[in-house]
Amino acid sequence: MAVNEKVSGIGANSERTDLNVSQQPARYISGLPYGQGQETYSNQTQAPMAGNSFAQEMPTPLMAPSSRPNEAVTTGVDVGDGAGSEVMRLPMQQSSLANTLQSLIQYDPSGEAELAYRMVVDSGSMA
């Protein structure tokens, strides 16, 4: 499969190449089990892979006019004008030690987080 991409020249002949949006070329991956490399290559040629998805998205320049002129610059922060952090729709913050320990249990293979959680819940003082 031929790749049709612009190639930039030098100096006055230079052109933008970040807008190349053609498909990715099919590539053979070596080191796979017998037959799987050829199968993967065949799949790539039968169903073309997407090109550069970022090429069509141009970042907003730093000094560009605001796309939200009627919104305070402090919107999303719990200081100043505008709505506070509640508009960010962040997950609920852990409100207690018990909740924090409970969320850590699944990541602690030693079981110490669960033991600490049970101690806190059983004491009833910090739950």
How does this structure look, described?
By secondary structure, this protein is mainly α. Among the domains are: 55 residues, no CATH class; 33 residues, no CATH class. It is built from 3 helices and no strands. α2 packs antiparallel against α3. The longest helix is centred in the last third of the chain and has 12 residues. The termini are far apart.
Reading the helices and strands in chain order gives HHH
Query: How many angstroms separate the termini?
Result: 63 Å
**Spans with pLDDT under 50 lasting ≥5 residues?**
none
User: What best-fitting shape do the alpha-carbon axes yield?
Assistant: flat
Q: Radius of gyration in whole Å, from Cα?
A: 27 Å
- The percentage of residues in β strands lies in under 5%
Descriptive keywords:
single chain, 127 residues, mainly alpha, 3 helices, 0% strand, flat
